Structures are given as structure tokens and as C-alpha cells.
Amino acid sequence: MLGNISDVDLRLLRTFCTIVEAGGFTAAQVRLNTSLSRLSVLVRDLELRLGYSLCRRGSSGFQLTDEGKELYEASQGLFGHIEQFREQVSGLGGREREALHLGCVDGVIGQRCTPLPLAIRLFRQRAPEVQVHLHTQRPDELEHAVLEERFQLAVGAFHHRLSGLRYQLLFREEQNLYCAPGHPFFERSDAEPELPAICAADYVGRGYMAESRRPHGLAFSHGTNAYTMEAIATLVFSGTFIGYLPTHYAAAWVLEGRIRAIRPAQLAYFSSFHCVTRQGTESAPILNDFLAALDDAQAQLGKC
Predict the structure, then answer these.
(1) Which residues contact 200 (CB under 8 A, 6 or more apart)?
(2) Among the listed residues 89, 69, 70, 91, the one whose alpha carbon sits nearest the alpha carbon of residue 81
(3) Phi and psi at residue 54, in whole multiples of 5°?
(4) 245/175 Cα distance (integer angstroms)
(5) Which residues are 152's β-sheet partners?
């Protein structure tokens, strides 16, 4: 049984809730970017601290025990009270200190279609008293930050849909597969190596993207993972890896001859970028004001 609730307890509870919302351990490992064995250990630790079983896994699939169902519902209430406490104490001291916490993936600033910079400018013109904080994180981290109400809104290319979140399409971004000097593909007189050779090359994958979501279903046999565009670009620049980068992000380096696209006509693809907000927060004035600014920014930029 839990005594005083610590930060460790809160993290275990949030992990348990994510597993429940994902429908099981297998789906949750992608969202939490951790292994099945690690998730099993975390849930077992929580069960030991509580003194009862929370779920069952077997041929019939993932199932919550009665205690697990009650704990999930109680946890939602707990997290709601934490947010209510945060809102209450933010107004102490005789003045209201409103803050807007936004999240975004990295590597999008060169994208002509992203409405976020213009939306921030419009919002600050209309609400100069609000503090705006922008956080850069990977997509799965952004989703959980919004779910946990640490961020009011986030922008990114999200590869699954979490219950409790609302996704609004903003724009699409072209991605190409690249190599750099020192790589055998770069030294070729053309940019058209055969697909088997491409799949055999060392590849930088996006660690937050499931294998099943790899572009064009390419099955790379070797490589590593990275979690930001900067990290992927650095590994590509080493001349020992190939990897996907946003076309706008790589454009200047292509012109300088520092990287080249591999079979662009065949292997390019588009990522859909969404604005994500937590369901049930639509009535928050500060969020409504920013969403209005985002809509106005999209209208000014035009369709992309």
C-alpha cells in the first residue's frame, strides 16, 4: 500500500495509465519508447508497492483486474487535482501569472508552411501579458506532455493517435533519403543504387517510429536510431549512414554538395504535421486565443 506519494510513484502511475490507454504492453512500448521487459518491471514494481495485482496478460490479451480498473480511475482524478493545484497556486501573490507552454519537434523552422512562428507573433500582439514558453521534444514526448497538461499544445508529425488527444492537420513536409561524402552511394555517378543495396546499408532510424511505419516499408538490416533531426544529420554527415531528413532542412547542404538525395523520385515521402491538444481543454481561454492565432496564421500562409 502506498504511503506518502513520491515522484517515483507518480511516474509509475503515469506509465500504468499509458499502458491502459494503449490497450496493452506491446502498443505502449512504442509510445513510451521502452522495452516490454522494462514495462513489465515497472508494473510489477507498482504492484509490489500497492500489494495487489493490476492486470493479466495471456492468450486472451491484456485485461485489467478490478483493482486495476479502480486504480486507473483514481489516477485520472489524482492527475486532475495536480493540475487544479498548479492553476490555483499560479494566481497567488496578488497577480495572475498566465503562461502558455507550447511544444514542437526540432528541424521545422525552415519549413515555409509551418504556422507556428506567425501564430506566436499574432498571439503575443493580442495577449502581451501572457508568458510564452516553447519546448522542443520528440513526438512521443510531446503527446504525453499534452496528455499530462504540462503543455497546452504541441506541433509535430505523430505516428499514432492517443486517446484523450485531438489532432488537427496543419501541413505536410517532404522527406528524402540522404547520404554524404565518404559513403559508397555518394561517390556514384548517379543517385540510383538498387533497393537491395539501400536496404543493406547502415541506416539512421527515428527511434520513436515503429518498424511498421518505416517509409515505403523499407526493411533495413543494419543501423542505429536517433531522436532529433540534428542527430540524424550528424550521423549522415559521417559518411557511414544513410537517413531521412526533411527536404527543406537539407536543401542548403544539397546545394553545397555536402549531401545528396538517394532515389528521390521513388523514395521521397510526406509527413503530416498536426497540432495536438488535450480533449476537454477546449474551453480554456488562453488555449482558445492561441488556437485562433494559429488558424489566422494558417490562413495568411495559405494552403501547403
Answers:
(1) 221, 222
(2) 89
(3) -105, -30
(4) 5
(5) none
Over its length of 304 residues, how does the chain's per-residue pLDDT go in tens digits? 566 777 778 888 888 998 998 888 888 887 777 788 888 888 988 888 888 899 988 777 788 999 989 998 888 888 777 766 766 665 565 445 689 999 999 999 888 889 999 999 999 999 999 999 999 999 989 998 998 889 999 999 998 788 889 999 999 999 999 999 999 999 888 778 999 999 999 999 988 876 556 788 788 887 899 999 999 999 999 999 999 999 999 999 999 999 999 999 999 999 999 999 998 776 688 999 999 999 999 999 876 6
Domain boundary, last residue among 90, 122, 145: 90
- For residues 191 and 218, membership in a common domain is answered with yes
Alpha carbon distance 70, 88 (integer Å): 27
pTM of the model: 0.70
186 and 149 in a single domain? The answer is no
Cβ atoms of residues 105 and 138 within 8 Å: yes
Same domain, 182 and 265: yes
Which helix (H) or strand (E) covers residue 269, if one does? strand 269-278
Residue identified by cell 501564430 is: 119
Same domain, yes or no: 120 and 78: no
CA-nearest of 81, 116, 76, 82 to 100 is 116
In angstroms, the CA 94 to CA 256 distance is: 56
Residue 111 belongs to a domain with what CATH number? 3.40.190.10
94 Rama sector, left if φ>0, alpha if ψ -120 to 50, beta otherwise: left
Q: Determine how β-strand 99-104 pairs with β-strand 55-56.
A: unpaired
